Amino acid sequence: MIKLHQFHPSGNCYKVRLLLHQLGIPLETVEMEMGPNGTRSLEFKAKNPIAKVPTVELEPGVFLAESNAILWYFAEGTPFIPSDKLERARMLQWMFFEQYSHEPYIAVARAWIAFFGIPPGKERELEERIQKGYAALDVMEGELAKRPFFAGERYSLADITLYAYTHVAEEGRFDLSRYPAIRAWFERVQSQPRHLRITDAVPATAR
């Protein structure tokens, strides 16, 4: 069985739970502490030298890290990756956007505000991250005003990656009421078969 080392509230970990649940792939979750006794321990670094979650154990002693790489591994050959060359490239475009222009701002603001506290001296940086997070949301709103999903007409990995932190962005002090296209997209994502909420535990039937 796939073993997912995770911090449950993390959007990056949620991406993996959501996809595997939608694919019907059973998994076991291992909750990790953030810090020297958890993700930065020598034991965990032996599994993933980057010392971050999510990390999946595909089989005994075989590990894979980085959320979007994990998604690609499991989704290859499924409808979650478009067969059309251009749509597939657009999917990757938005997955790269999520990691470079979205997650560093929206996810970090949420983490500081909702879970770990604002690091001393980082108050101004928080406001800068929130401004850049709004810039990412503006880009998403413009795209979703033109098409139902990020890679075209169908739900794909691009939607999973961007949904994960966007739908909980209000926990990072982002006002989503000004984004009607994003909120309509939330409903489309949530209507997909076998949708799993970020707060849900992995269903017993999937373990």
Automatic annotation (TrEMBL):
InterPro entries: Glutathione-S-Trfase_C-like, Glutathione-S-Trfase_C_sf, Glutathione_S-Trfase, Glutathione_S-Trfase_N, GST_C, Thioredoxin-like_sf
Keywords of this entry: Transferase
Residues covered by the GST C-terminal domain: 84-207
UniProt-recorded Gene Ontology molecular function terms: transferase activity
Ranges for domain GST N-terminal: 1-82
Pfam family, one: GST_C
Family according to the record: Belongs to the GST superfamily.
Protein name listed in UniProt: Glutathione S-transferase
Biological classification of the source: Bacteria, Pseudomonadati, Myxococcota, Myxococcia, Myxococcales
